[in-house]
User: Which sequence fits this backbone?
């Protein structure tokens, strides 16, 4: 590792929602940030806003479409070589709310690549390099990664993959006596851009019109911190919108 500076956190899908809120929260705790997302302008705007509150935090912006799988090994290698990464958070993802027969094939491939393939590849690379280091990997799944609802079949399938991958890796690391910890955060309904993207809308959604109860992105960032500070593998947001920490959820 060359020219490394300690205590960097990588966050994919950092341009909005849970990713952006988590960036603020981790910056408040003194972590330097590496922010990854497709939208460079959003990332640079977020960087400026965080610096306004936390000027001593170093923030690296890396525009990247995670669905372009072939580019990810090079991106990972550059980051891993130049920064001492303490926490890697695979947060990027999206869903569609409709029956499987109504999907465009491009939507299927984009969702699988972003939600599952990118997470699998980056998880594998990070584990290969850091399983004997005191680091944490957090993969963001979903409540839908443990339960299937109507019109969320494909999204749930991609998130079940994330849950199984992460819980399995956590068990493997424990068996090996490795220092690295793998954890999964499974949000319930959270006020982000998710509903807008999922329903192909051209406007933001008022979550109070859709859900009787939901969490904010800031609350999920707090839940993330609780998960990071615990020895638990799974942080699942239950049907009461409270965080439940456990060793596992899958059989």
Assistant:
């Amino acid at each position: 590792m060359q020219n490394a500076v300690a205590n960097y956190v990588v966050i994919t899908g950092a341009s909005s929602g849970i990713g952006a809120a988590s960036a603020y929260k981790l910056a408040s705790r003194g972590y330097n940030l590496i922010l990854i997302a497709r939208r460079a302008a959003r990332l640079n705007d977020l960087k400026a806003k965080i610096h306004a509150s936390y000027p001593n935090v170093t923030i690296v912006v890396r525009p990247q479409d995670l669905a372009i799988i072939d580019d990810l090994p090079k991106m990972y290698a550059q980051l891993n070589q130049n920064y001492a990464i303490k926490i890697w958070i695979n947060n990027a993802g999206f869903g569609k709310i409709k029956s499987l027969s109504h999907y465009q094939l491009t939507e299927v491939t984009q969702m699988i690549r972003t939600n599952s393939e990118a997470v699998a590849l980056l998880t594998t690379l990070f584990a290969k390099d850091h399983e004997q280091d005191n680091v944490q990997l957090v993969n963001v799944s979903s409540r839908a990664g443990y339960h299937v609802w109507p019109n969320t079949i494909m999204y749930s399938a991609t998130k079940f993959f994330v849950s199984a991958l992460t819980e399995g890796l956590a068990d493997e690391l424990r068996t090996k006596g490795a220092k690295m910890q793998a954890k999964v955060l499974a949000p319930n309904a959270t006020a982000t851009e998710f509903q807008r993207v999922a329903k192909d809308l051209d406007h933001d959604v008022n979550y109070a019109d859709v859900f009787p109860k939901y969490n904010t992105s800031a609350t999920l960032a707090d839940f993330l911190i609780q998960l990071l500070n615990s020895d638990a593998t799974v942080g699942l947001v239950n049907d009461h919108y409270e965080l439940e920490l456990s060793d596992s959820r899958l059989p």
Summary: The chain has seven helices and ten strands. Residues 8-246 form a domain with the Rossmann fold fold (CATH 3.40.50.720).
